[in-house]
Write a structure and sequence with these properties.
Structural class: alpha+beta
Strand order of the largest sheet: 3-10-4-9-8-5-6-7
Number of strands: 14
Largest sheet: 8 strands, mixed
CATH superfamily of the largest domain: GroEL-like equatorial domain
Number of domains: 2
CATH architecture of the largest domain: Orthogonal Bundle
Strand content: 5-15%
Shape: elongated
Helix content: 40-55%
Radius of gyration: 29 Å
């Protein structure tokens, strides 16, 4: 009987270990897909769909979200990366690489006989100490004139100087107060267009053209009406329309709509933006009044235009307001014009809140997307640096924190210390990968930096990817936003703990519809 129990126990252990290894392999595969892009010498990845369409990018979150990944553990990691992108706008590759290292190290410890509970206990303790250390080493940015702001933009912008300059110029126009507003996303001001010139201006771009050539192409000192709705009469259902009373009501609504629109046009409105379609009657009335109309404007662009011009968005029923009430809903802009080459409407010099737009030019359609992604990363990093300060880059911060954590480990009793070791290994991983991507031996160079940091007491030492020598990243101006590093480690820790806690993988039962389709002889395992 005891032999049966031992065999059963051994089977359970094997099954749980198999689940850990399967999940670990999936995480490692995802990490390996992006780790080659890390650092200044990182290379690009080509993504190809079934139709042969190609995307070539160095952007971690783009690779992760566009790649085909069916394993649930892999999708967990991709979701963490997506959340990081939404929260801080950069650092997804670092988070993914560290998550892969944490999971791999954790599985190795479990395979050696360390209980998962102890690994997780040490993981939590190590992460807490590491995050506290990172926060303590962040230094605030002394305004937008600080030299480090451009350096942050340049590094996040993958050494594209024109993009870094555009982003810094836009940041100065927007101002430090606006950048620190948590509801404002600097990266949303970025727009890339084929054939456009690099430009930063106070205004917004609507990615639509005027409705017809009969409308004015350019307007100055213009009143702006924004309709968060379709610009057409209220609808009547077909059944009501089939009755005499319903048809009479239809004619009345048509007449009221035309009358209200003419009343609005009489206020001297020059530009109308509509969220949805504009009917033929409205187009004719407004064109005759010399109004430029843009229909089917994206919601985000509509809100930006309203904020910049100071307009209050109204529904089509809002046209029934009195003249005085309608006037209060209008915005103003210094200039609005239709750029026929780019097929856009530009609204400049709004009377509302200052709104900078960064227009990034691209030579061909193939590079438009990548130029926009690069500029968005640079903008997000600059905003993070302004709000949360900066730390030394090149993997130097993580390595310095790893060294401190090794001292913390000495004070931890029991097997939880092995969980701290996992965090130490993960913190070493970014510099190791940066060095490897630059063509140097990571073991040798990591040893050189560890010795140099310990000898000099400088936590900002790392490897220069051109020379392979140990250099001071702070002196060279190599800096990263502290928020990006902190969020990346925290996100990596969350996904690692979630993966390590899974010891069984069970396929969910099919829903009843699917079960009814199954045949009596189908081989289905149930519990």
């Amino acid at each position: 009987m005891s032999l049966i129990r031992e065999a059963a126990a051994g089977s359970d252990v094997d099954e749980k270990m198999a689940a850990l290894i399967t999940n670990s392999n999936a995480i490692r595969a995802i990490a390996s897909a992006v780790e080659g892009t890390l650092g200044p010498k990182g290379l690009d990845t080509m993504l190809v769909d079934k139709f042969g369409e190609v995307v070539i990018t160095n952007d971690g979150v783009t690779i992760l979200t566009m790649m085909e990944a069916n394993h649930p553990a892999a999708r967990m990691l991709i979701n963490i990366a997506r959340a990081q992108q939404e929260e801080v706008g950069d650092g997804t590759t670092t988070a993914t690489v560290m998550a892969g290292a944490l999971v791999s190290a954790g599985v190795e410890q479990v395979a050696r006989g360390v209980p998962v509970a102890r690994v997780i206990e040490g993981l939590r303790a190590g992460l807490k100490s590491a995050l506290d250390s990172m926060r303590s080493q962040a230094r605030p940015v002394s305004g937008l004139g600080d030299r480090v702001v451009r350096q942050v933009a340049l590094i996040a912008g993958r050494s594209h100087e024109d993009i870094a300059d555009l982003v810094v110029q836009a940041a100065v126009l927007i101002g430090e107060e606006k950048l620190k507003d948590k509801t404002f996303k600097f990266s949303d001001t970025i727009l890339a267009e084929e054939g456009a010139e690099n430009e930063v201006f106070m205004g917004v771009i609507i990615k639509k053209e005027r409705m017809s050539r009969q409308m004015p192409r350019e307007l100055k000192d213009v009143s702006v009406l924004i309709i968060d709705d379709a610009l057409e009469p209220e609808e009547i259902d077909d059944e009501a329309l089939g009755t005499e009373a319903g048809f009479a009501r239809y004619l009345q609504l048509q007449e009221e709509f035309s009358s209200n629109l003419k009343k609005a046009a009489g206020l001297g409105i020059g530009l109308v933006l509509a969220d949805r379609g504009v009917c033929d009657a409205a187009e004719e009335i407004l064109a005759d009044a010399g109004v430029m109309v843009v229909q089917r404007v994206a919601g985000k662009e509509l809100r930006r235009a309203a904020e910049h011009t100071g307009a209050r968005m109204i529904k089509r029923t809002g046209l029934k307001k009195t003249i005085d009430e309608l006037e209060k809903c209008l915005g103003r802009a210094g200039r609005a014009y239709n750029d026929e080459k780019l097929e856009q409407v530009w609204i400049l010099g709004g009377a509302g809140k200052p709104m900078a737009t960064v227009l990034v030019g691209a030579a061909t359609a193939e590079v438009v997307g990548e130029r926009e992604r690069i500029a968005r990363d640079a903008a997000a990093s600059v905003q993070s640096a302004i709000t949360g300060g900066v730390v030394s880059g090149g993997g130097s911060l993580e390595l310095a924190v790893a060294r401190e954590l090794e001292k913390v480990r000495e004070g931890i009793r029991g097997m939880a210390a092995y969980g701290v070791d996992c965090v130490v290994e993960a913190l070493k991983r970014p510099m190791s990968q940066i060095v490897a991507n630059a063509g140097f031996n990571p073991l040798e160079k990591l040893g050189d930096v560890i010795a140099a940091q310990a000898e000099t007491g400088k936590n900002s030492l790392a490897i220069d990817c051109d020379s392979g020598l140990v250099e001071d990243m702070a002196e060279k101006g190599i800096a990263d936003p502290a928020e990006v590093k902190i969020y990346a480690l925290r996100a990596a820790g969350e996904v690692a703990e979630a993966i390590l806690r899974i010891d069984t993988i069970i396929k969910k039962r099919e829903d009843r519809e699917t079960q009814r389709d199954m045949q009596p002889g189908d081989n289905i395992k149930t519990f």
